[in-house]
Amino acid sequence: MAEKKEGIVETIKTVIWALLIAGVFRTLFYQPFWIPSGSMKDTLLIGDFLFVNKMAYGYSRYSCPFAICPIEGRIFAREPERGDVVVFRHPGTGADFIKRVIGLPGDTIQLRDGIVYLNGQALPQEDAGLFEEIKEPQGSQRNIPQCANDPVGIGGICIKERKRETLPNGRSYDVLNIRDSFADNTPVFTVPPGHYFFLGDNRDNSQDSRFARPNGVGFLPAEYLIGRADRIMFSSAGRSLFFFWTWRPDRFFKAVE
């Protein structure tokens, strides 16, 4: 009986140590993140699985699960670069978001007819063909993609216009256009000190810094940064990762541009 009790105690100790180690790893180094929505297509697809590099920008209270880290501001802080794909805590809803950094503190940003003007200069866009996908429920949330060629029935080919956008630092990435919308034209935004301006790559399907909180992101304070998305580790087009026939092997270990 004593040996049995001792075995139970050792098992409990092992579980506790495993949870502590996993918690420290998640807090200091890498956090897993599933892509739940289509706001970053075609860079990131619904069902992509990432490990977010939490060392990239330093640490704040939001680096810990449930924001329990006893940290004021940020420690070991480093500034994101324009073009980084970043996971951050939404200041209003508390949800984790993923978008692309476009504006740094002091920058001005404006959209005119869908073109981004950064500090008064238009970001070049080159034609990159069409982005095509099947119009069907996607991911665990069963989101239906929006299409430039709507109306499209379920099972049909959903098309979006695709451009290659380039930042002044040479970083380039694809952006998608679904329709002409009011968000294609904005006032001039001036990013305050200690804040950042984010856009989704799927421009007509993204709640980002063009929109004020609570529904949008607005200017994001630096303390809400969690980490940088560097590489897709796994990807599944189905409702569950266990549906192996929906896996996307061509996206495994793919770098995030």
TrEMBL record:
<feature type="transmembrane region" description="Helical">
    <location>
        <begin position="12"/>
        <end position="34"/>
    </location>
</feature>
<dbReference type="InterPro" id="IPR036286">
    <property type="entry name" value="LexA/Signal_pep-like_sf"/>
</dbReference>
<feature type="active site">
    <location>
        <position position="39"/>
    </location>
</feature>
<keyword id="KW-0378">Hydrolase</keyword>
<comment type="similarity">
    <text>Belongs to the peptidase S26 family.</text>
</comment>
<keyword id="KW-0645">Protease</keyword>
<keyword id="KW-0812">Transmembrane</keyword>
<dbReference type="GO" id="GO:0006465">
    <property type="term" value="P:signal peptide processing"/>
</dbReference>
<dbReference type="Pfam" id="PF10502">
    <property type="entry name" value="Peptidase_S26"/>
</dbReference>
<keyword id="KW-1133">Transmembrane helix</keyword>
<protein>
    <recommendedName>
        <fullName>Signal peptidase I</fullName>
        <ecNumber>3.4.21.89</ecNumber>
    </recommendedName>
</protein>
<dbReference type="InterPro" id="IPR019758">
    <property type="entry name" value="Pept_S26A_signal_pept_1_CS"/>
</dbReference>
<keyword id="KW-0472">Membrane</keyword>
<dbReference type="InterPro" id="IPR019533">
    <property type="entry name" value="Peptidase_S26"/>
</dbReference>
<dbReference type="InterPro" id="IPR000223">
    <property type="entry name" value="Pept_S26A_signal_pept_1"/>
</dbReference>
<dbReference type="GO" id="GO:0016020">
    <property type="term" value="C:membrane"/>
</dbReference>
<dbReference type="GO" id="GO:0004252">
    <property type="term" value="F:serine-type endopeptidase activity"/>
</dbReference>
<dbReference type="GO" id="GO:0009003">
    <property type="term" value="F:signal peptidase activity"/>
</dbReference>
<feature type="domain" description="Peptidase S26">
    <location>
        <begin position="9"/>
        <end position="233"/>
    </location>
</feature>
<feature type="active site">
    <location>
        <position position="99"/>
    </location>
</feature>
<dbReference type="InterPro" id="IPR019757">
    <property type="entry name" value="Pept_S26A_signal_pept_1_Lys-AS"/>
</dbReference>
